[in-house]
Amino acid sequence: MIEQEQVLDALRAVYDPEIPINVVDLGLIYGVEITADGDVTVRMTMTAPQCPMSGYLLQQAEQGVRTVAGVRNVKVDLVFDPPWEPSMIKEDALKSAGILTDTPANPVEGDCSTEK
């Protein structure tokens, strides 16, 4: 039997070309269903409904899932409910991409946000 974690691991190899974070950690995978026969359905969204890379990402996701041993058929459903938002990105992914650091930003002298 195929495990959900195997499918998610395969999807972690798929990166949004505009954001250096894989589709799982980016929060684009909304669900994975696996039948006993090896059919896999992935519910996936995009960062925006008009994403120019949606076709590419859907194709890459399907190809990635096909690499899992025992997978017979793959269906990737594109959904937009609930809408994706940046808070869905895993914090560890933001840190490893260099987008978020553990140290608070140092206020810049003269910056309006530091004035009292």
Automatic annotation (TrEMBL):
<protein>
    <submittedName>
        <fullName>DUF59 domain-containing protein</fullName>
    </submittedName>
</protein>
<feature type="domain" description="MIP18 family-like">
    <location>
        <begin position="5"/>
        <end position="76"/>
    </location>
</feature>
<dbReference type="InterPro" id="IPR002744">
    <property type="entry name" value="MIP18-like"/>
</dbReference>
<dbReference type="InterPro" id="IPR034904">
    <property type="entry name" value="FSCA_dom_sf"/>
</dbReference>
<dbReference type="Pfam" id="PF01883">
    <property type="entry name" value="FeS_assembly_P"/>
</dbReference>
<dbReference type="InterPro" id="IPR052339">
    <property type="entry name" value="Fe-S_Maturation_MIP18"/>
</dbReference>
